[in-house]
Amino acid sequence: MQLHRVVTTVFKSHRVAKRRRGSVHPLKRLLKYAEQYRQQIWLASICSILNKLFDLAPPALIGIAVDVVVKQQDSIIARLGVKDIFGQFFILSALTVIIWILESIFEYSFARLWRNLAQNIQHDLRLDAYKHLQDLELAYFEERSTGGLMSILGDDINQLERFLDVGANDIIQVAVTVIIIGGAFFILAPSVAWMAMLPIPFILWGTFAYQDVLAPRYANVREKVGLLNSRLANNLSGITTIKSFTAEDYEISRLAGESEAYRRSNAKAIQLSAAYVPLIRMLILVGFTALLYFGGLAAVNGIISVGTYSVLIFLIQRLLWPLTRLGDTFDQYQRAMASTNRVMDLLDTPIAIHPGDVALPVEKVRGEVTFKNVTFNYQDRQAVIKNLSLDIPAGKTIAIVGSTGSGKSTLVKLLLRLYEVQSGTITLDGIDIQKLQFRDLRRCIGLVSQDVFLFHGTVAENIAYGSFDATEAEIITAAKVAEAHDFIMRLPQGYETIVGERGQKLSGGQRQRIAIARAILKNPPILILDEATSAVDNETEAAIQRSLERITVNRTTIAIAHRLSTIRNADRIYVMEYGQFIESGTHEQLLEQNGVYASLWRVQSGLK
């Protein structure tokens, strides 16, 4: 009954699935991507075909051997001029050796070619997909989980690699088997050939019907595994929070839910794919039994020879039984095509922010920045920046203060072109930043963010990140300026100490000082300090403040801060609320105005 329900599902869903098809088939998308490997694909396919041709030769040799035993001087070989029985078997033996050697050579060739092709395409896809991800705007990442993207870059590409490894060869060899053996049947015994061929159209039709029905199920499987990976990635990143809130049981239950959804999605696909082989076996039974019975009668009645009957019996097995492997191959193919669609959809994601073509060498940058009537809003949200204008003279230090969510950090992201303004312009030294090459624009800006990110590696490697050719002396000098050298030398291996993933082995203040050293080593014309001292104690803040006073000389500096004590010496201070500047001036001027800034100063300094 279960098998009957599965068959009914396939037949009912076939028409629905056909109506769904309209987009480009994933296999076509993959072949278009792998166009540079066209020669290798053809060569691998030819080796697969030749291997199968020689693999199908032994049944024919057996039939000829039976023919020699039965007919002797009247055998097929005897008709070619070799009447001696010893000579006939010698020729058969020599042919067997040659065929087996050639079969082995081509098996080695196709396995090597397909596997290397799989590795090459896997390598290229992963690099191209990651490169494309790096070029996408920040908004793309805000709408997607890291785990989901990791699933595409890892599991989906690996799934495709597994199919190319063996599945492509299996499909080619099955096709060759059907064509060669089918042709041989009609040549050797046309009267009974149709019996052996009878199941083939039904097998092929059933295969395509299953393909249509299984495709959306495997697409759903890939979606569910992406959600599962996302949950795992989030939990591993937030393990400290999970432990501190004793939420282990809660997270296990949430993970169980995601894993159960993945299991159920797989179960629905398995329900259909597992029925494929039993159905094929029933169809094979029809062809094999018909040939065994009617072919045997034909041999007894002299319509076909005993040798031909032997060849047909061997060939029918070589033709029909390998078709049962199509179940596994087909299952692998569907998983690979679902993964291909996900990878190709990522590669086809349009890039919203395009780099300009104007070069601006860093040594020629003066650092004059101008925001003119800039408006910006995040997707489906109200404007964060509203018609804002700001002039930052070259070599000057300006500070921006304001409440959380007022738009301070957004200005930095717009200057770095991590987001694109909706209206207005931002210029650097009089050049619209949209016209500048990304590398030149971002090379001239050093960012020390409130959320410091350190890579798993040594302290020295993290300081030199972005300045990869820096010498050891330059790294140490930058660390000293950032007031980081002393604590680094107290670490177990000094500058060679591994900081751990995201710098988890260091304190917040230590991470921030390394980030400042990294920006100092970059030596950019423009320095952005986005809450650069938010995670340090008062003593460290004072030390960093001394270093910042040295490195901001003759350098355009934008300081965003909640601690007003860190920006009181700025050339000009702007107070920002709701995406607009409501006050501006020097520290003394703002205190005299007795507005928002003065109120904040009194609160932070302990004055009433």
From TrEMBL:
The lineage of its organism: Bacteria, Bacillati, Cyanobacteriota, Cyanophyceae, Nostocales. It is a multi-pass membrane protein. Residues 369-603 form the ABC transporter domain. CDD domains: ABC_6TM_exporter_like, ABCC_MsbA. SMART domains: AAA (SM00382). The chain crosses the membrane at residues 85-106, 171-196, 273-293, 299-316. It is found in: Cell membrane. The keyword Transport applies. This is ABC transporter. Its main location: membrane. GO terms for cellular component: plasma membrane. InterPro entries: AAA+_ATPase, ABC1_TM_dom, ABC1_TM_sf, ABC_transporter-like_ATP-bd, ABC_transporter-like_CS, P-loop_NTPase, Type_1_exporter.
